[in-house]
Amino acid sequence: MRLGLLRDRDFRLLFTADTISQVGTQVTLLALPLVAVITLDATALEVGVLAACETAAFLLVGLPAGALVDRLRRRGTMIMADVLRAVLLASVPLAWWMDQLHMPQLYVVGLLCGVCTVFFDVAYQSYLPFLVGKEHLVEGNARLELVRSTSQIGGPTVAGGLIKLLGGPLAIAADAASYLVSALALWRIRRIEERPVRKADAHLGREIMEGLKFVLSNRLLRAIAMCTSTGNFFGSIINAMLIIYLARNLALSPAVIGLWFSVTGLGALAGAFLVNPFVRWFGQGPAMWISMLGAGLGLLLVPLAQADWRLWLAASGYVVFGIGVVVYNVTQVSFRQGITPDDLLGRMNATMRFIVWGTMPIGGLVGGALGHWLGVPETLWIGCAGSLLSVLPLVLSPLRKLRELTSAPSAGTEVVRK
What would the mean pLDDT of 353-360 be, rounded to a whole number? Predict the structure, then answer.
């Protein structure tokens, strides 16, 4: 990639804030469940509940968050979310130091951090079009996806080393500090939105319904929502059990687990570089379903992992999964942002997040229950096999053949076929 948007000071600050925050988040994604498994000796069901708590906020506050974000300056919302996440995460090492750390606290921290993440993500996806312009959305999303992908490579290795050196609770303290640095970078952005004008007859419930109607009345957005929510449901089943499988069933050390996740992150990095040529070769619609089919097939290698060469065979499957998910995400997010009016961006993003992330706490609970009743390896097979179902809404929709999406076709809306 050429410099492009990185020449812009304000986008560089957003890029920097996202980089710092994403690396720190990768530390917590590994450290929080490992604290539960290793420090607190949590059961499979307790880890499933923790996974559900981390994503339950999208069900609890997802829809009103979009309407509220559309009433606020989005940069300020992101800064506040970063500061609150820093405070919440700092409570974990503090409680551990005082010998007062228990699973209920991890549940509360996971849930409240999830609430902050809901507001941050909705505000971030709604702020990007203002910052870079809709004509640069694919490049902007690809740049930020590159950040996330790179953090998936370096973050787990850093996490594994920190956990081995300091222990899980102190590794989480590093993430708390990273959110403060991210907030500082966002605060230095000069381009500030005007405060949205609130209509005299504004009503939260009516604004929420406008976002729901915009998404659900459009057949392409419905297909995207169904695909992503199905993938997230089965992905959460996998995520709830994967660390238990690696740490207990395979008896791998935190450092090896961190290295494994770093290797698998190569797929997301490759996907960030491949998304533009992939879309040019296949077109936007086919790029979505082809990438998701490849992602699902790659996951089938994950349950084959053993504490030998098959561990890295499974990692190769996760690499393929990462490529597919990144190509799909950049393509569908850029499309959604491009066809949505500015005053509906927050509600559209929140509605999509409510639908597609709302299945994650359910998946986490189902994964924990299945792991408790059937066993961890069997639950991994169910999650990985079920992920293939996510491609069906795409191949059964007009997206299957649409090469260029200039607008979202609902009733009577035109699309361009090339």
Answer: 83
